[in-house]
Design a protein that fits this description.
By secondary structure, the chain is mainly beta. Helices cover 0% and strands 40% of the residues.
């Protein structure tokens, strides 16, 4: 799945605006940032994450999100997005919050 947050498109095909790519596995969802987008994995539920907490980026550009964790994304356009999901056995729907 590709995520284009500038156009709020979620597709199976990469577009020029794609910020992230993800694949679901048994125990986690793997995310890969498409440069210049950046990601940061936080071990907190999305309800406890504010824009300030999503503002420090670095690392490899690859993250494995497990149930209850939050993935912060700095998009190509400089917007901040937070993604999360909670599951018992396999990853399911992803919840998204866009920070102004």
């Amino acid at each position: 799945m590709y995520y284009d947050f500038g156009n709020m498109l979620f597709t199976d095909i990469r577009t020029s605006g794609s910020d992230l790519f993800s694949r679901k596995f048994e125990a986690y969802i793997e995310f890969v940032a498409m440069s210049p987008a950046q990601i940061l994995l936080i071990d907190k539920p999305i309800s406890d994450v504010m824009k300030d907490g999503c503002g420090v980026f670095g690392g490899t550009g690859i993250a494995q999100m497990r149930s209850g964790q939050t993935l912060c994304v700095k998009t190509m356009q400089g917007k901040f997005i937070a993604l999360t999901s909670r599951w018992e056995t396999k990853p399911v729907e992803i919840e998204l919050v866009a920070f102004d």
